[in-house]
Amino acid sequence: MNKIFVLAILVLVYNCKSSVNTEAISKTITSNQIEEMVKFLASDDIQGRRAGSEGIDKAATYIENQFKFFGVKPYFETFRDNFKFENTKFNSNGKGSEYVDAFNVVGFIEGSDPELKKEIIVLGAHYDHIGIGESIKKYGGTLMENDSLANGANDNASGTSAVLAMANYFAVKKNNKRSIMFALFSAEEWGLKGSRHLAKKLKESNLDVYTMINFEMIGVPLNDRDYLAFVSGYDRSNMAVKLNEYAGHKLVGFSEVSKKYQLFKRSDNYSFYEAFGAPCQSISSCDLSNFDYYHHVSDESELMDYEFMSNLINSIIPAIEEMSNTLEKEIVMNQAQSDG
Description:
- The structure is a single chain.
- By secondary structure, this protein is an alpha/beta fold.
- The chain has one domain: Zn peptidases (Aminopeptidase, 3-Layer(aba) Sandwich), CATH 3.40.630.
- The chain is 35% helix and 20% strand.
- The protein is built from 10 helices and 11 strands.
- Strands 1, 2, 3, 4, 7, 8, 9, 10 and 11 form a 9-stranded mixed beta sheet that branches.
- A hairpin with an 8-residue loop joins strand 5 (131-137) and strand 6.
- The chain is globular, with a radius of gyration of 19 Å.
- The protein starts with a helix and ends in a 17-residue tail after the last helix.
């Protein structure tokens, strides 16, 4: 991401009197900036971002450098939140006899209100992927050799780019009364290991997590919907209703497919829900009905719809902004719940 992006935001902030001016905010994040981030994270050089690999270390360093450039501070002593997990999924003997060194990357922007800043909004996404997939010909036929790298553009370089873009925005705007944590998780593909580690750690420190919004596979638009993305676990809270209210239009909706496959339990929001019992849900535009390359080597950056992604992120920003500034916690759990 280049300095022109930051300067453009500064000009926008100077001229924008309302933090929820959708017309002005729509010019904040460009498709080119999102494409730049996704292409780096999903490049062959990063080797599919498998937890414990050299590639994911490069991805983490990239995220750290972006945070530093934006002016986002680390939440812990450094940006990396280190942990180990037992390898039970990919080791050769299947007995989980080895441990993998892994790390989340966690940034933080403290809120401006002396009381509300104690309430934390967590914006998260997993930045790892599966690394090596079944070898096939590269889609499009541009290369003759077989491709075995699962580069994970949609899953989940796309979500990672959204969190980075919002970190950049709030670092420049500095108008959030509540504090915002930007958490990029490793080892999601191994069973939500990174988010479980961080959620447990934050719970043990008695952190007041107001809500956690996870961004998962936002690289392609949904088909035949009257909203841009769905919220997993739709009726567990009033999050979708409040996001639409804050955004001023129908930004998010309900997905039958998400409910059928219980996607609420299959991404990093669930770790925070289990730890805090608070509204912790995922925003996604991929419910497995509109993308053929889930955990596939053809999940490549060239297939992403960057105009859609930038539009979605720009639509979400004012909603997060409003959420960070309400006097009360307006997003609450519902009594009637399902696993959607």
